[in-house]
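Incident log, structure service

09:12 report received: a user says their structure output differs between two submissions of the same chain.
09:20 pulled the input from the user's history:
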Amino acid sequence: MNLERFSDQELIKGFNEGNKECLEILIKKHQKKVYSYIFMTVKNQHVADDIFQETFIKVVNSLKNGCYSDQGKFTSWVTRIAHNIIIDYYRKEKAENTISNDDSEVDFFNNQKYSDSTIEDLIVNEQIFEDVGKLIDYLPPEQKEIIILRHYSGMSFKDIAELTNVSINTALGRMRYAIINLRRIVEEKQIILTK
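09:34 re-ran on a clean worker, output below:
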């Protein structure tokens, strides 16, 4: 039986039934795209290696616990897990790095950039982020992926085109249609997303 011809869903089913070779093939099948996404985001090989490994540990645990439902591309799901791990990594890095004001004539701490947002601002921004995240789920998979890669990961259209194996024009077109569809959904559901 040639497992490499199996679909992602068949490989996941095989893994859940105890065939570890299915997991190896699944990882091998998607590792280039997922690793490229991680590396393009963090731009550091050691960090990318760690995040890639942590991503697939979470994937394995989620598959074992039955937390994956086949509502789209497996790659998008894995990329979302990687994206969340990258965000956690940057949050941790930001928390560990502190700024000293001692050796500078410029008062860093009297700067809007370094000031904390009010609790109200944080709650409103978090709610908007959550609402937009829910709206994205209504988009077709290609449009959903482009929104996540562009706005949640900050990737350029050139990098997105390379990662998703499409032309830049196709990536731009998908973004355009995603925005049109999001506007339509917001109007239909009468959602207000501004502060």
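09:41 both user submissions now match this output. Likely a transient worker issue. Closing.
09:42 reviewer note: The domain at 1-97 is CATH 1.10.1740.10 (Rna Polymerase Sigma Factor; Chain: A). The helical segments are 8-16, 20-42, 45-64, 74-96, 119-136, 141-152, 157-164, 168-189.
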